């Protein structure tokens, strides 16, 4: 979901934060009360907009807002098509009681789609952004699943659950299959974490040692840029393997790339990279927001960046002027054939008919992916470049 449509303090959409770092709830509420306003998010606004269109389509209501682009319409259609393939009983924008799960009185959450097909309960969440989200052990989906299970089993049996993340922009559908026993095993840990988070919030205090920095909880935390625990954790990760914080940094950093490490140290350092990058981005954004709010940050200021690309103020007038200059058509216009991706979108929209599309598919080629570094729990099989050399000869 783009934004949790609930007044719950411990919203399912922020589950990764309060489950892994109970102090984050108090920290975020403290940030929300500060005078530095958070910059509006175009991505969040688009997510809310696309979710509303998807709900209308799944419920068979007329889509009154026609301002969606062709690309946005295709994103929504991908999600809607998947949900419809599940069959069964569909509940859209399902309002769920999560008070038993978090211990927060009258708390509610809203799941994008809940489907009961036979004795299998599907919890489907649409993510229209570009950040990869995993379904496995996803706290948001687990909270929805527990609430939906409790509600559904009052009338019908449920034997298995499937939690699904649909990410049209990444052409990705990730599903996590679990049985009822595994789902229920999450109930106590969730309630314990929620109680701890509520205690910190109501006490209006959380000492730095109470914070638990980590990639999942810090990624979307509004307090990450001012969290001393996160900052210290990030600096410790760098200092342990790369630099001595008690010495001048620049001379050390110049030689970091040339240093050699044993493989264990190298693996630990690579694991730390996303968290360190996350902290750097959070600090940069906080500086930007502070300066935009009219406050000063020692050593930094706002200035105009490089100018944008040149463009015609009136393309029609520019076209007429170019014609008056007696330019040839080939000199006046930039033309190239559409990409296979664009052609595929035209096919999905019905502009390119199936027969023509089958001919076009025969003309499409796609090079193999280049080797990339991924975690060892990634489902893709490992490759060994040495095998390629062994086959030469």
3D architecture notes:
Among the domains are: 191 residues, Lambda Exonuclease, Chain A, CATH 3.90.320; 69 residues, no CATH class. Helix 2 packs across helix 8, helix 10 packs antiparallel against helix 12 and helix 15 runs antiparallel to helix 16. A hairpin with a 4-residue loop joins strand 4 and strand 5. Helices cover 46% and strands 11% of the residues. It has 17 helices and five strands. With 393 residues, the chain is α+β, with helices and mostly antiparallel strands. The radius of gyration is 26 Å and the shape is globular. Strands 1-2-3-4-5 form a five-stranded mixed beta sheet.
Give the % helix.
Answer: 40-55%
User: Please, what is the average pLDDT?
Assistant: 84
CATH class of one domain: Alpha Beta
Radius of gyration: 26 Å
Structural class: alpha+beta
Tell the overall outline. Answer: globular
In this structure, how is the largest beta sheet organized? 5 strands, mixed
Question: Which structural traits does this protein have?
Answer:
393 residues, 5-stranded mixed beta sheet, 17 helices, globular
TL;DR?
With 393 residues, the chain is α+β, with helices and mostly antiparallel strands. It is 46% helix and 11% strand.
Topology:
Elements: H1 15-20, H2 24-32, H3 42-58, H4 70-85, E1 89-97, H5 99-102, E2 108-117, E3 120-126, H6 139-152, E4 160-167, E5 172-179, H7 180-184, H8 187-203, H9 215-218, H10 228-241, H11 249-254, H12 263-292, H13 315-324, H14 329-332, H15 340-348, H16 354-361, H17 385-390
Parallel strand pairs: 3-4
Antiparallel strand pairs: 1-2, 2-3, 4-5
Helix pairs in contact: 2-8, 3-4, 10-12, 15-16
């Amino acid at each position: 979901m783009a934004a949790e449509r609930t007044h719950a303090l411990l919203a399912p959409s922020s589950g990764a934060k309060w489950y892994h770092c109970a102090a984050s709830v108090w920290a975020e509420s403290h940030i929300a009360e500060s005078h530095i306003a958070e910059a509006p998010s175009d991505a969040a606004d688009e997510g809310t907009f696309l979710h509303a269109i998807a709900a209308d389509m799944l419920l068979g209501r007329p889509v009154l807002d026609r301002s969606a682009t062709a690309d946005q319409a295709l994103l929504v259609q991908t999600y809607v098509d998947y949900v419809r393939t599940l069959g069964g009983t569909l509940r859209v924008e399902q309002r769920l009681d999560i008070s038993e799960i978090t211990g927060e009185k009258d708390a509610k959450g809203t799941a994008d789609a809940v489907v009961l097909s036979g004795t299998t309960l599907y919890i489907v969440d649409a993510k229209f952004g570009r950040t990869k989200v995993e379904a496995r052990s996803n706290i948001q989906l687990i909270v929805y699943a527990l609430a939906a299970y409790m509600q559904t089993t009052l009338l019908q049996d449920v034997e298995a659950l499937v939690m699904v993340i649909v990410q049209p922009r990444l052409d990705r559908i990730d599903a996590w299959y679990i049985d009822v026993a595994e789902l229920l095993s999450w109930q106590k840990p969730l309630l314990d974490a929620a109680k701890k988070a509520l205690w910190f919030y109501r006490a209006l205090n959380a000492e730095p040692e109470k914070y638990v920095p980590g990639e999942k909880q810090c990624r979307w935390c509004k307090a990450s840029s001012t969290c001393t625990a996160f900052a210290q954790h990030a600096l410790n990760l760098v200092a342990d393997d790369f630099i001595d914080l008690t010495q001048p940094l620049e001379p050390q950093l110049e030689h970091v790339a040339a240093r050699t490490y044993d493989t264990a140290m190298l693996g630990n350092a690579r694991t730390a990279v996303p968290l360190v990058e996350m902290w750097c981005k959070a600090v940069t954004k906080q500086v930007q927001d502070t300066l935009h709010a009219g406050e000063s940050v020692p050593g930094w200021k706002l200035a105009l960046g490089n100018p944008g690309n040149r463009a015609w103020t009136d393309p029609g007038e520019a076209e007429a002027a170019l014609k008056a200059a007696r330019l040839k058509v080939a000199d006046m216009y930039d033309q190239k054939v559409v990409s296979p991706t664009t052609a595929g979108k035209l096919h999905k929209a019905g502009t390119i008919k199936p027969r023509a599309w089958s001919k076009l598919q025969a003309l499409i080629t796609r090079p193999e992916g280049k080797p990339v570094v991924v975690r060892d729990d990634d489902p893709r099989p490992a490759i060994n470049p040495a095998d390629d050399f062994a086959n030469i000869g």
